[in-house]
Amino acid sequence: MRNEKGMTLVELLISIVIVGLIIVPLFVILTGTFTRTVEQGKDTQLAYFGQEIMERIRVEGYVDGTSPTTYYCLNDQGCVTEEDPDITYDAVATITASTPTYTTTPSSLEFYEIKADIVPIDKQINTLELVTVVKK
After folding, report:
1. DSSP state string for the chain
2. Which residues form a coiled coil (predicted)?
């Protein structure tokens, strides 16, 4: 009588192939999901930078003649207007202002249109543009 309690080499190889056919697509899906999550996190951080700058301009007001203004942004410290050459910033925001003219707007409601272009340092593809208005 033969001892038939173990697995043969062929059975072991077939089970390894089947497990491989299941695991490889899972790794592909998980890698793509992780990459998209990281990119969305970077986009969200750019939106926070833009929101911080726009809120600062709305609170402090816009000083005429200071366009364009550049802000240098760090993830953990926010945005500053003076660049420190010893620091590698995460994003650079350029603020430009214009005075739009509308024929239906009364002169008492004059305002500046403020545009912020936020560009990450590490990648030039994901940029963010925000536009708001500030009363003169």
Report:
1. -----S--HHHHHHHHHHHHHHHHHHHHHHHHHHHHHHHHHHHHHHHHHHHHHHHHHHHH---TT--SEEEEEETTTEEESS--TTS--SEEEEEEEE----TTS-GGG-EEEEEEEEEESS-SSS-EEEEEEEE-
2. none
Identify residue 23 by its one-letter amino acid code: I
Residues 23-55 pLDDT 10s: 998 888 888 888 888 788 888 888 888 888 888
Look at the block and give the residue holding tokens 């203004």: 69
The predicted model scores a pTM of: 0.64
114 within 8 A of 132, measured Cβ to Cβ: yes
State CA 110 to chain mean position distance: 32
CA distance 59 to 15: 66
Residue 32 near residue 112 (C-beta atoms within 8 A)? no
Q: Is the pLDDT of residue 102 over 70?
A: no
Q: Is residue 1 scored above 80 in pLDDT?
A: no
pLDDT, average across residues 73-80: 83
